[in-house]
From TrEMBL, chains A, B:
Belongs to the PrpD family. It comes from the Bacteria. GO terms for molecular function: lyase activity. Pfam families: MmgE_PrpD_C, MmgE_PrpD_N. InterPro entries: MmgE/PrpD_sf, MmgE/PrpD_sf_1, MmgE/PrpD_sf_2, MmgE_PrpD, MmgE_PrpD_C, MmgE_PrpD_N. This is 2-methylcitrate dehydratase PrpD. Residues 7-248 form the MmgE/PrpD N-terminal domain. PANTHER family: 2-METHYLCITRATE DEHYDRATASE, 2-METHYLCITRATE DEHYDRATASE-RELATED. Residues 268-439 form the MmgE/PrpD C-terminal domain. Signal peptide: none annotated.
Length: 463, 463
């Protein structure tokens, strides 16, 4: 019987390297490097060491898969767990607009861990990532805005995206993909409630999505069966977790539209819902020559989801929570001209000028912005100056969006900054990882990336 | 700030052995043995070996915690995963009526695995189990019938129940219990959609609930923070997963009402929603001296949840799925006078008389039964005989319910039958485990139960 899940599964089973357009392959390499930078930057950031310790306590002391932040070898389950948590803490990992899914932080940890254990090639890793992105984005779009209002889509849908990526590495056929979606979908979880308290759940969600998806795929390979219509069945995900699901998204232009290349790189080190307003404020201040002191009030005119996610955060008490504070982000932009890792680390919580600016920022629902969302994330700010002027600025493509993407040079610079921020990789190692990523399609075998004895192998291809 | 989650957390933190009534301690020992029997009976049943293999592939090759079906030592994470899956496959594990939660299959695997690693005493294990049952049942009641209509409560709420039990073993205070509920609640998952296909998700749900709850507790012990109001917050479990949540249940008579002793033992080896009708049919056939051949049609008059869960199963294709087929269960009762493990294994799928009887059974919503549910699970059947009579039977306390419970002799007999069914323990081992359970409160230290070198220790207390 044909139904949307089966159509999606058939597409995933048929996907192979020669069918991918060059620009999709190239973008996969870029997203892989960008993800790797976020994972390295998580080293030492609370709560990442807790995940490392859990992996040490519960997992094996050796293995073929690599936990990047502590450079330990372990089983794929725990490498996926730790690397996903690590890559979702500094808020620099990629985001797909219309699905509001962070695909990289769930797809790459699971796929890399499995690829290392399975000895997959770079091309197989690329195809796995593409499968994970294409499925995850469509399922996120399918579940719609009502889902995202309560659920952290990267936790819920991320489980399915990770499962699909690993399933591709395990060579699944159409039936297996249907089963793995069933077993991943029935594990899908992640609620936004933690935001109110600045709790650690965002990293837990990414970690669990990657590990649970991997678990679903490995069990499916051994014969575990799953619901045939977990997405649109009567007691499936849409029934339980959405009020506005639309099954047409599940099969939207499969093989023609590549969701992976619609994915945005993050420029600012904050929640993506703050980026459009940050870019608009920066542009406004530059074009009018304003300093933060000139500004009496900023109204960020936003879509409803920004209010849902950022609204609970009024006075941030941790650096991570500050990344969900519109006032803090705009304060950093206004005072320092950027809201990068270093600005957050040094100035987000204690700098009086930033705190003062934060209190002069409010959010307001803008019907036009809301209507364009989630396809477009429009930046609209209205500023009242101390000398009585009212100024407005509009930005339609925030920095990092497909229409305003980062170049490979900018991605390299971002990667080096992320690696240096945590010290998880030396400048020489960072360069090797950049070279590795730009040659991903030529790698004969995905080995651990930061083990001394492995460096020879990894650099061999372009030596 | 006081709120229901904090009140519940304070109760859990304060719970200790001397505060437990004797009958609660005694019932804990019975539930522990009953759970152990279900876990052993799962050996070799699909899909349990898949979980064993995953644990071997992803976990360590040694440890202090025991995977019961393959007798391997591993870390608590994987012992909890395998034992929970195993104890939820033969449909003999306990059930709490008004929460529609199977507490044993999630609480005991997590608590036993942690107790073995931590070297906890029997009394500490008992207190942990009580904490898990008391919290789990109240959270299940809180989420209500709308939750259970879509979600497998044992998967969702089971994650919190398991987390609480392990948190108790880890010595959590009130704050830690609030955090662990947050981190467990945000992982809560499990959809009924798999029932339609007879897929393996029911075991996956139990396995994941136990392991995820344990993960939440171990991470919380190290400092992971969670949402403060995951249950009733604006973007918490009730908001996302229920339409009829009632926060009063969360703190219902804490310390006075003991939910653990309201838990039912399962007599028939099938979904609990079939039990009231099975008992009613058996009583009717006995009182009227009917054989299965005398019966033209049975109408099981049931509550709505029975239709939600059993309705999708029309023609079962696996033994496990047959346990969710009202027709098959009543067919086994009618033909063999019982619906135990052996009857399912031998006759549920292929015996023509059972299949023929199955086709003569229908379910009908009964407003009186539905109004009493979930507090009471009433059994009502109407039978039309081939000679034209219409007969009815009512049962108010199905066999195994608190009002019609199993004696220790009956529990021992059930346990021996479960162990013998799979061959997971020899008769001598089964006797040792019975002795161990009846002395649980005197065990100085919970060691692995089936390791050759451990038998001395475990039997030492009553030698």
């Amino acid at each position: 019987m044909s139904h949307p899940t089966r159509t999606l599964a058939a597409f995933l089973a048929a996907l192979d390297y020669p069918t991918l357009p060059e620009r999709v392959v190239s973008r996969s390499e870029e997203l892989c490097l960008d993800w790797l930078g976020s994972a390295l930057a998580g080293k030492g950031q609370p709560p990442i060491p807790l995940f490392e310790r859990y992996a040490q306590r519960m997992g094996p002391a050796s293995g073929a898969s690599e936990s990047l932040t502590d450079r330990r070898l372990t089983s794929p389950h725990f490498a996926a767990l730790v690397n996903a948590a690590a890559s979702h803490i500094v808020e620099q990992d990629d985001l797909h607009n219309s699905s509001v899914l962070h695909p990289g932080t769930v797809v790459f940890p699971a796929a890399l861990a499995a690829a290392q254990e399975l000895g997959a090639s770079g091309r197989e890793l690329i195809v796995a990532a593409v499968a994970g992105y294409e499925a995850g984005v469509r399922i996120g779009e399918f579940l719609g805005r009502s889902h995202y209002a309560i659920f952290h889509t990267t936790g819920t849908v991320g489980t399915l995206a990770a499962a699909v990526a690993v399933g591709k590495l395990l060579g699944f056929d159409e039936d297996r993909f249907v089963h793995v979606l069933g077993s991943a979908g029935t594990q899908a979880a992640g609620l936004w409630e933690f935001l109110r308290d600045g709790a650690h759940s965002k990293q837990l969600h990414a970690a669990k999505a990657a590990a649970d998806g991997l678990l679903a795929a490995y069990l499916t390979a051994e014969g575990l069966t799953g619901a045939q219509r977990i997405l649109d069945g009567k007691q499936g995900m849409a029934a339980g977790l959405s009020q506005d699901a639309d099954a047409r998204y599940l099969t939207d232009r499969l093989g023609e539209r590549w969701a992976l290349e619609e994915t945005s790189f993050k420029f600012h080190a904050s929640c993506r819902h703050t980026h459009p307003a940050a870019d608009a404020l920066l542009a406004l201040m530059q074009s009018h020559g304003l300093s933060h002191d000139d500004i009496a009030h900023v109204t960020a005119r936003v879509h409803q989801a920004a209010i849902d996610v950022l609204g609970p955060v009024t006075r941030p008490t941790s650096i991570h929570q500050a990344k969900f504070s519109m006032g803090t982000v705009l304060g950093l932009i206004a005072v320092y001209g950027r809201a990068g890792l270093e600005e957050f680390q040094r100035h987000a919580l204690a700098e009086p000028q930033v705190i003062a600016f934060r209190e002069r920022v409010s959010m307001q629902l803008d019907p036009q912005v809301d209507a364009a969302y989630p396809k477009k994330w429009l930046g609209r700010v209205t500023v009242t100056t101390r000398d009585g002027r009212t100024l407005s600025q509009a930005i339609d493509d925030p920095k990092g969006d497909p229409g305003n993407t980062l170049s490979r040079d900018e991605l390299e610079e971002k990667f080096r900054r992320l690696a240096a921020f945590s010290g998880a990789a030396s400048p020489a190692e960072a360069q090797r990882l950049i070279d590795w990523a730009w040659q991903l399609r030529e790698q004969p075998r995905i080995a651990p990336l930061l083990q001394p004895q492995m460096r020879e192998n990894n650099s061999g291809v372009h030596a």
